[in-house]
Amino acid sequence: MPELPEVETIRRQLILKIKDKKIKTVEVKLPRMVNVAASQFEKTVAGAAIRDIRRRAKILIMDLSNGYSIIIHLKMTGQLIYDGKTGTGKPHIIYTFADGHELKHYDFRLFGYAKLIKTDEVGKLLNKENFGPEVLDKNFTLKNFLDLLAKKPNAKIKPLLMDQTFIAGVGNIYAQEACFCARVLPTREVSTLTEDETGRIYDCLKKILALALEKKGSSVDSYVDVGGEKGSYVPLLKVYGREGEQCFSCKGKIKTIKLAGRGTSFCPACQK
Ligand SMILES: [Zn+2]
């Protein structure tokens, strides 16, 4: 699933490509992707311009000039591709701009959505999700992180990092990578973590997410950027998807377990 680095990559590229562009037509090929009747979606969006594209957690918010916003969640396999390359499967929503360019929304496993709501209702919708702080926000300090951890003494650290109401934007890939980087087992309970360990987890999260963003994300499955290109973080992954392979640090074997229902890889020697 696209996580913070992937969704933020898409947001930044969309700003460059479509901000201030006028949408001439929109075609909803798969009505269940949207929250209103396809014809209503098409009629409301056509003729509006893209004012801004925001992100909160893994959600993209396209604000239109007519008082509406489109809330997009890519979930597992969503792709937003501008012109050129084709995505996986068939496009479900096609936005055609007044200058002839196109943005196509693909989602071959169909978990994602595009919801049309009034812009002044976006805040209410986001509040309902109860998202935690954005990890790359410069106002998200170590003290904030420690205060949040103090409220969850019995939680296991890796599933906690993935909990969007704890901190926002981290999923299965980067939670595993942060635990390896911090040399902490993903199964550790928060109350057992030392000050050094919690400090390392905080530093590792910030460092890994920033670098993954710089590399335009990890294409471990169908994720591609707005140009249809893969992200280049995969060669930098230390544990995710490396079950049975050699640890880059100690040459031991990477082990994989199920933790809170999700495959979780770690090095039993490097992580304590
Ligand atoms: Zn190791």
Structure in words:
The structure is a single chain. The protein has 272 residues and is an alpha+beta fold. Helix content is 28%, strand content 22%. The protein contains 7 helices and 10 strands. It has helices at 4-18, 38-45, 122-129, 142-150, 157-162, 172-181, 195-214; strands at residues 23-28, 50-56, 59-64, 68-73, 78-82, 91-97, 102-107, 113-118, 255-259, 262-266. The strands form 3 sheets. Strands 1-6-7-5 form a 4-stranded antiparallel sheet. It has a 4-stranded antiparallel sheet with strand order 2-3-4-8, with helices on one face. Strand 3 (59-64) and strand 4 form a beta hairpin. It is globular, with a radius of gyration of 20 Å. The two termini are 27 Å apart. Bound molecules: zinc ion. Residues 247, 249-250, 252, 267, 269-270 line the site of zinc ion.
Key traits:
globular, 272 residues, binds zinc ion, four-stranded antiparallel β-sheet, alpha+beta, 7 helices, single chain
* β-sheet strand percentage: 15-25%
Binned, the helix content reads 25-40%
The SSE string, one letter per element, is HEHEEEEEEEHHHHHEE
Give the strand order, joined by hyphens, for the main sheet. Answer: 1-6-7-5
DSSP strand count: 10
Q: Which regions contain 5 or more consecutive residues with pLDDT less than 50?
A: none
Shape by Cα distribution: globular
Going by helix content, strand content and strand pairing, the class is alpha+beta
> Mind telling me the C-alpha Rg?
20 Å
- The total of helices stands at 7
Distance between the termini: 27 Å
Mean pLDDT rating = 97
